[in-house]
From TrEMBL:
The keyword Secreted does not apply. Keywords: Metal-binding, Zinc, Zinc-finger. SMART domains: RING. The keyword Zinc-finger applies. One of its GO terms (molecular function) is zinc ion binding. It comes from Meganyctiphanes norvegica (Northern krill). Residues 5-49 form the RING-type domain. This is RING-type domain-containing protein. Signal peptide: none annotated. It holds the Pfam family zf-RING_5.
Length: 536
């Protein structure tokens, strides 16, 4: 029957809450059931179980077709009843009271399965159920059931507790707000007092500064006036000095005129210049020698970090003889930027116009010395030792090898003369290793030297620089004092190291003074000592 609600089984009406409402799915229910099913703005259709959102029952569409059917049926029934009653029983027209069936006051809607009111709550399954559901599904199995009135009362009590708790929290919050307001008022009062105090102090400070500025203004005016007076005095003195200078120039011109007319005076001046030059060269050499000797006493480590050594590294002038274009000349050596600057000492040419000799072409311009002392140092400036090599004048290739060693262009390799050569190998914490090789009969070749030296590294030895007792023997590096082989043993002498190495070269006349045996010391710092440097 389309005129009966499928949920509560009540007949639809055309007015009031029992009017037929049609959901979007097409199923119809009365307004009373729709009100019960509306939970949190949603209605679940009891027939197809689809969910629809409605915020108000009045928003659900009224099924006017059902209302039309009800009105037609009501009209037809009314006409039929009236006509029948009028014929059979006139008293039937009197209206009678018919009681309207009512449901329970507390329920949770109509059960979709049984059509009865949901008046029970199953705590085990957390659902509302009707009495038929209790008998059918929730009688056994340990279900805990409660009347809906008790559930609602419990929820009401729980909500009351939560409301009381929130009210208490609100009261506490109000108390804290009042306390914070009092603190804010107190802080505002303190800030106001501090601002008034600061303004007063600033005003007093400004007045003090203004008084000091006025005093400085008066003092500045006095100083300015005094300076003007002093400047006037200086200008007057300057004019007097200018007059005196003019008088001196006139007298100097007169004296120069008289001097040019006297030949003896010119000769005397030339002789005087020569004397001054000789005194200057001797003085410079003595000063340089004193500087080196002083630094030696300060210790080997401090010598390489001293200001004096820094001045000697790149531009130290050393005087001696050198050969250029088969001409024996007396001049000075100056090491700069990897070159040897050879300049005639008596030449009046500027320094940049002097003869510059590249070390790589030294044998082409200057006769290479027959005896060379070479110094090798670590990166931190500590000395590894010095080495003495005889060089045969007929072997320019060997001389070039020694120059390459000095410049660092080659590593540990064979270099020396056709008579004796000294091979070396530098290590961070080791002194140079020493060995002699006779090469006249090609007993050992260049390739044999380094492997032999590597093999000798493990041999216990006393390391140091051997200083001979005479100037002709030269230096050797001591590596093994137990060896009795004359080819491996060093020449007779004393072993020195550290500071004593530099002392022996400078002070003990190890650099020969004989012009026939020209010697020089070549160090990585660029220090060159000529053959006659010791004597001058």
């Amino acid at each position: 029957d389309v005129t009966i609600c499928k949920i509560c089984r009540d007949t639809y009406t055309t007015t009031g809450l029992s009017r037929p409402h049609s959901l979007s799915c097409g199923h119809t229910l009365c307004g009373v059931c729709a009100t019960r099913l509306l939970v949190d703005g949603e209605i679940v259709c009891p027939v197809c179980k689809q969910t629809y959102k409605y915020h108000d029952i009045n928003k659900i569409t009224i099924n006017h077709e059902v209302e039309d059917i009800i009105e037609r049926m009501t009209t037809a029934v009314s006409l039929s009843a009236d006509s029948t009653t009028a014929i059979t029983d006139p008293a039937a027209a009197i209206p009678k009271h018919v009681p309207t069936p009512t449901g329970p006051k507390l329920h949770y809607g109509i059960c979709e399965e049984h059509g009865a009111y949901k008046v029970h709550y199953c705590l085990t399954h957390t659902i509302f159920i009707c009495s038929d559901c209790v008998v059918a599904y929730h009688l056994d199995g340990g279900c805990r059931r409660f009347p809906i009135a008790k559930v609602l009362n419990d929820r009401k009590a729980d909500l009351s507790k939560k409301i009381d708790s929130h009210m208490s929290s609100l009261q506490d919050t109000g108390t804290q707000v009042a306390m914070y307001n009092a603190m804010i008022q107190c802080t505002e009062h303190q800030i106001k007092n501090q601002m008034e105090k600061t303004e007063l102090q600033a005003k007093l400070q400004i007045e003090k500064l203004q008084s000091e500025i006025e005093a400085l203004t008066v003092s500045t005016s006095w100083v300015t006036e005094n300076l003007k007076q002093q400047m006037d005095i200086c200008q007057k003195s300057a004019s007097k000095y200018s007059e005196l200078i003019d008088n001196c120039k006139d007298r100097q011109n007169k004296a120069q005129f008289s001097k040019n007319n006297v030949k003896d005076i010119a000769n005397f001046q030339e002789l005087n210049n020569e004397t001054q030059w000789m005194k200057s060269s001797e003085y410079k050499t003595q000063e340089w020698t004193k500087q080196v000797e002083v630094t030696l006493n300060q210790g080997f480590e401090s010598f390489f970090t001293s200001e004096t050594f820094a001045n000697l590294v790149r531009c130290q002038e050393t005087y001696g003889t050198f050969t250029h274009n088969e001409e024996q000349r007396w001049g000075r050596y100056c090491y700069e930027d990897g070159n040897i600057l050879l300049q005639d000492f008596r030449s009046d040419k500027p320094k940049n116009e002097a003869l510059v000799i590249d070390l790589r072409s030294l044998t082409e311009h200057v006769s290479f010395p027959r005896h060379v002392y070479m110094q090798f140092t670590n990166q931190d400036g500590t000395s590894l030792g010095r080495i003495f090599i005889k060089v045969n004048e007929e072997a320019p290739r060997q001389a070039q090898q020694i120059i390459d060693l000095c410049l660092g262009k080659t590593g540990a390799r064979w270099a020396g003369s056709s008579e004796i050569c000294v091979a070396y190998k530098g290590r961070p914490k080791e002194v140079l290793l020493f060995s002699k090789y006779l090469t006249i009969d090609n007993v050992y070749s260049c390739e044999n030297i380094l492997p032999d030296l590597e093999a000798k590294v493990e041999i216990p030895h006393k390391q140091g620089l051997v200083v001979p007792y005479n100037n002709t023997a030269g230096f050797d590096i001591l590596t093994n004092t137990d060896s009795t082989d004359p080819l491996d043993g060093p020449p007779i002498g004393k072993v020195v190291s550290g500071l004593q190495v530099l002392e022996q070269i400078i002070q003990d006349n190890l650099v020969g003074s004989s012009p026939s045996k020209s010697q020089m010391v070549i160090s990585e710092s660029g220090l060159l000592i000529g053959s006659t440097c010791k004597n001058r």
